[in-house]
Amino acid sequence: MVKVNENFAKLPASYLFVEIDNRVKAFQKAHPEQEVLRLGIGDVTRPLVKPVVDAMKKAADEMGHAETFRGYAPENGYAFLREAIAAHDYKGLGIDADDIFVSDGAKSDTASIGDIFGLDNAVAVCDPVYPVYVDTNVMAGRAGDFVEGKGWSKIVYMPCLEENCFLPSFPEQVPDLIYLCFPNNPSGVSMPKTQLQAWVDYANKNGSIILYDAAYESFIVTPGVPHSIFECEGAENCAIEFRSFSKTAGFTGVRCAFTAVPKKLQVGGVSLNQMWARHQSTKMNGVSYPVQRAAEAVYSDEGQKLIRENIDYYHNNARIILEGLKQAGFTVYGGVDSPYVWMKVPAGMTSWQFFDELLTKCAVVGTPGSGFGIHGEGYFRLTSFNTTENTTKAVQRIIERFQ
Ligand SMILES: *Cc1c(COP(=O)(O)O)cnc(C)c1O
């Protein structure tokens, strides 16, 4: 008899964005005249920049001619892209082209990195957290059982609280695998170099591995905030880094990312770089040629200049949200090295009550913090992924209602 993977049955229904959608639809139906403004979007909205589109078109043309046609791409990425990544993103950091693995997304990479680790490893995550790290460990059978109000029995939660600037503290139980994401989704805060170095030292001392999600690296503007964990001394002995073109260059619908696994990184004499190479070559056949050429074009001078303009556009929206919310009397965090603003909901309200308040009184949509973990309760995420016009309008409505 066929048996399914019973771990899936343990997963609570992923209801956050479905529930948001249902409530927005119900509101819209009752108030068809109201223009609903969405500041809950976790997806970029600015179009691809011209050098990227040109490179994709040119590569598509090459694919249509026998002389320049290409079949399967190298599993871990074309040398032209891996070399561009190493030269641009890891210059002077000791990460070479052959430490880099090109893939279709940081979601798939952070989701499947667990495949190369044993099931009895203790996993630590921040709370609140990007749900992928937790859910994929549930699917693999590493998370134990879900306890209402507490979370997964075998997951080590690291509460990220206001008094610690939403940065995690070393947990009581030493974990084997530590997922960190900075600048953070959902809180939008970044981690200063000294703190990240302390995590690297902690991991090296305890023999843990840090799985570092740097998907929002390109939003960093604060001096002294590390763009890569490999800026920290000793990180090549304890860290894997995930990056993506999704938020950096608007590739959410194009799909291209990469993971850096240093050749030095070993567990019990086994090279994680070789294991990940084996994993990827067994489970995927690479990323399409036009997409890799498009990603390469991100690193051209013109590409860099133009993606910077888009990121600045989002930064400006985040600034409008931050300043407007402050003016309305709210306490706000993040939004500087990140497209995300993390606001405290008014005292006595839950995240979902504030969601309803904002929707019904302002016709503005955000994301309840409690959807990202127990310690997200009492907070609310707004994003800068909208037009400046809509962002300004939404913030104006919030000021009028709450000031
Ligand atoms: C958006 C995002 C990613 C990027 O995922 P892709 O699969 O590359 O689009 C990764 N991690 C976090 C935390 C994100 O928010």
Task: Kindly describe this structure.
- It is a single chain.
- By secondary structure, this protein is an alpha/beta fold.
- It has two domains: 6-47 and 303-402, Aspartate Aminotransferase, domain 1 (Alpha-Beta Complex), CATH 3.90.1150; 53-300, 3-Layer(aba) Sandwich (Aspartate Aminotransferase, domain 2).
- It has helices at residues 7-10, 16-30, 50-63, 79-89, 106-112, 131-140, 193-206, 245-249, 272-283, 289-298, 301-327, 351-362, 388-402; strands at 37-38, 100-103, 123-127, 146-147, 151-152, 155-159, 177-181, 209-213, 239-244, 257-260, 266-267, 270-271, 332-334, 340-344, 364-365, 367-368, 379-383.
- The strands form five sheets. It has a seven-stranded mixed β-sheet with strand order 2-10-9-8-7-3-6, with helices on both faces. The chain has a four-stranded antiparallel β-sheet with strand order 13-14-17-16.
- Helix 3 runs antiparallel to helix 10 (289-298), helix 5 (106-112) packs parallel to helix 6 (131-140) and helix 11 (301-327) runs parallel beside helix 13.
- The protein is globular and about 60 Å long.
- The model has no long low-confidence stretch (mean pLDDT 97).
Largest sheet: 7 strands, mixed
The multimeric state of the shown protein is single chain
Uncertain regions spanning at least 5 consecutive residues: none
Q: What is the overall silhouette? A: globular
What proportion strand?
15-25%
Question: Ligands bound here?
Answer: pyridoxal-5'-phosphate
The count of helical stretches stands at: 13
Examine the coordinates and then state which fold CATH places here, giving the name of the CATH topology of the largest domain. Aspartate Aminotransferase, domain 2
Based on the structure given, which CATH architecture of the largest domain is correct? 3-Layer(aba) Sandwich
Tell me roughly what share of residues is in helical segments. Answer: 25-40%
Termini gap: 63 Å
Structural class: alpha/beta
